[in-house]
Amino acid sequence: MHAMQYELTLPADYDMGVIRDRVSRLGHRLDDWDGLGFKTYLIRERGVHGSPVNQYAPFYLWNTVEGMNAFLCTGPFQGVVDDFGRPVVQQWTGLSYEEGVAGGSPAAVAVRSTRPLPEGVPLSEAAKDAVRETERLATLDGAVCAAAAVDTRNWETVHFSVWAHDTPEAAGEVFRVLHVSQPGRALLPRGPRW
Question: Are 37 and 188 within 8 A, CB to CB?
Fold first, then answer.
């Protein structure tokens, strides 16, 4: 399992209706993408849920590297590059995934938080902590799903959770979910990935 996200930070006066319309027109193109677990089409709007910026920032969980590479090299990602320039694409190695207690519910918001892996703490312990946090998030009211991944370049974990209501029980950056493409969500492996 691989996690991926890119962020397009837009001007403060940008009409986010443009992004909403784009997702409405084009979001379905990944609804059956081979190798994709799920993609959440995410936005942050300045002043909403404490966001200081307007941003389009989709988050992906991939079942296969081939599906991810096909998307980046020969797929719809080129449309993003053509319209907004080539963004930095963050990639993380998946540590854990869990369906939430509200797994069958439509997604309203998502939360992303990152945590540095402290020096002196064995990586195995940090990874186990990330898995426990994923399990905890999945049990909270309104949780649709939760995942954890690790960035071995900056030595931090990323926790990502999707919620069925606007008041998530997780701390972090809150994003509005515009659409979810989930062709391989049922295939995402549960529990620790080692």
Answer: yes
Enter the DSSP assignment of 1.
-
Q: pLDDT of 86-101, one tens digit each?
A: 999 999 999 999 999 9
> Residue 100 sits in a domain of what CATH number?
3.30.70.100
**pTM above the 0.90 mark?**
yes
Residue 39's closest CA among 82, 75, 88, 15? 75
Sequence-separated (6 or more) residues with CB below 8 Å from residue 110: 40, 42, 59, 160, 161, 162, 163, 174, 175, 177
- What distance in Å separates the CA atoms of residue 120 and residue 46, rounded to the nearest whole number? 38
Instruction: Tell me whether residue 194 is in a domain.
Output: no
* Other Cβ atoms closer than 10 A to 153: 9
